[in-house]
Amino acid sequence: MLAGLETSLSDQLDKLFMPVRRWGRELQISAYAGSSNEGVESANNANVPSYNTDTEEGAPDKKVVISLKGITKVFGPKPNAAIELMERGLTKEQIMEKTGSVVGLKNVNMEIYEGEIFVIIGLSGAGKSTLERCINRLVEPTRGEIVVNDIDIRALEEEGLRNFRRRHIGMVFQNFGLLPHRNVLDNVAFGLEVQGMPRERRYAKARDAKELVGLKGYEMAMPSTLSGGMKQRVGLARALATDPAILLMDEAFSALDPLIRNNMQEELIDIHEQLRKTIVFVTHDLDEALKLGDRIAIMKDGQVVQIGTPEDILSNPANDYVVNFLNGIDRSKVMTCESLMKRPELIIPLRTGPHTALKMMDDADQDIGFVADRDKRFVGLVKAGDLLKAIKGKYPLKAAVKTTVRAVQPDTKAEELIAILVETDYPIPVLNEQDALVGIIHPGSVMNKVRPDNGEIAQGAEA
Ligand SMILES: Nc1ncnc2c1ncn2[C@@H]1O[C@H](COP(=O)(O)OP(=O)(O)OP(=O)(O)O)[C@@H](O)[C@H]1O
Ligand SMILES: [Mg+2]
């Protein structure tokens, strides 16, 4: 098994070599000015920087902007009878047979945070569109509570609902929904026109939105002359023009060619970084979900099966359905070093004498030590054997430290890490932006975690 693993790893070296060059940080510290080896700091004083593995619930800075509680939707003639049967545990098909009604959503609860891209994914008919449309009551839930930006949406009357939609929500659909007889600028300005904004102002805003999505020079073009990607840019610009806090996107990129789709995903990420809008993005494409989603909700038969960050879902799939759903995806493209690293147990200050350093490593049962300077910046690695030589030759610790070391960041993807591991023979330091050591990755621990649960090696690691 291990031999197989090694072969597959080296096989991909060639492929992965480029990313290493780009992302793996080569640390080269050629000279240490002014540090001496007399002062010895104890291991306990070596301040280990804290790192944050908390990616989910409980983080205090996350404001809930969309809250859905107990949302149930029944399409058809006998909603109450259908709900009763649903509560008795009958299947969707049985309920359909007995009542002629379709259960679209079944007691869905979720909270969406301000500024995140929240992806809803599931197979066709899972209830993704129905759920998304409940947020602005384009679909009227049969039961449940919806609060958006502290507004109780279900309590709104017609006029209030209309205002809410205009002010708070932008929508982007798969089929673009452009007005065929209006040019690009008028399409983009449409939402503002509906809001009653004077012509000059709405054109100014529409121009801003248009530039944001890369439609410069297309103002006067008619929709029929545009490619799919361009049409969807118009759709996106139109949704952004009214500056809504929330964007609802339903399979917005699904009709596009793979290459264009990829571009649009990248651009959406860029736009999101600039504007930090809350985006609820419906897709049936797992790669798209993993690429875009800060968090993902997986739906099945009108219910939410699991909600979490891509890493949460990959490392802790809620049940077999999720495991199967995720099967075949390449975890190494999603998992990051943060979830693969161990907290450093021992950091040796550069000023430590080689004797003491060796004792510290021995006490910690380590053959390799991680050395940091006074400012806690990572300096390099030291091996026990080199310390022995330093003791014998009466050199300071710094002479024994290997400073040309490949390092990664907490958000480096496992894919890049693996490429580094195949050409190194030491644990990989994980450094934060200040170059402080926040974690250590032991090569042996990686493949187990990057492998999917069915025991096969992740697709990308084998290919
Ligand atoms: N207007 C409607 N009338 C009757 N049933 C509906 C209606 N809209 C949706 N449904 C049903 O509700 C369920 C959820 O549909 P929904 O369109 O939300 O699924 P979806 O996950 O968006 O699927 P897709 O990926 O195909 O778009 C399906 O069984 C669907 O047939
Ligand atoms: Mg749909």
Describe the 3D structure.
The N terminus and C terminus are likely disordered. The protein has a six-stranded mixed β-sheet with strand order 7-8-9-4-10-11, sandwiched between helices. The chain has a four-stranded antiparallel β-sheet with strand order 3-2-5-6, sandwiched between helices. The chain has a three-stranded mixed β-sheet with strand order 12-13-14. The chain is built from 21 helices and 17 strands. The chain folds into two domains: 179 residues, CBS-domain, CATH 3.10.580; 200 residues, Rossmann fold (3-Layer(aba) Sandwich). With 463 residues, it is α/β, with parallel strands linked by helices. α9 crosses α10 and α16 packs antiparallel against α17. It starts with a helix and ends with a helix. β13 and β14 form a beta hairpin. The relative contact order is 0.14. The radius of gyration is 27 Å and the shape is elongated. The site of adenosine-5'-triphosphate has 12 residues, from β3 and α5.
Summarize the structure.
With 463 residues, the chain is an alpha/beta fold.
How does the SSE layout of this entry go?
Blueprint lengths: L1 H10 L1 H11 L1 E3 L36 E12 L3 H9 L4 H8 L2 E12 L3 E6 L5 H8 L7 E6 L2 E2 L5 H11 E5 L10 H5 L1 H5 L4 H14 L15 H14 L4 E5 L7 H18 L2 E6 L2 H7 L2 E6 L2 E6 L1 H6 L4 H7 L10 H4 L6 E3 L4 H10 L4 E5 L5 E6 H10 L3 H4 L4 E3 L6 H8 L6 E4 L5 E5 L1 H8 L8 H4 L1
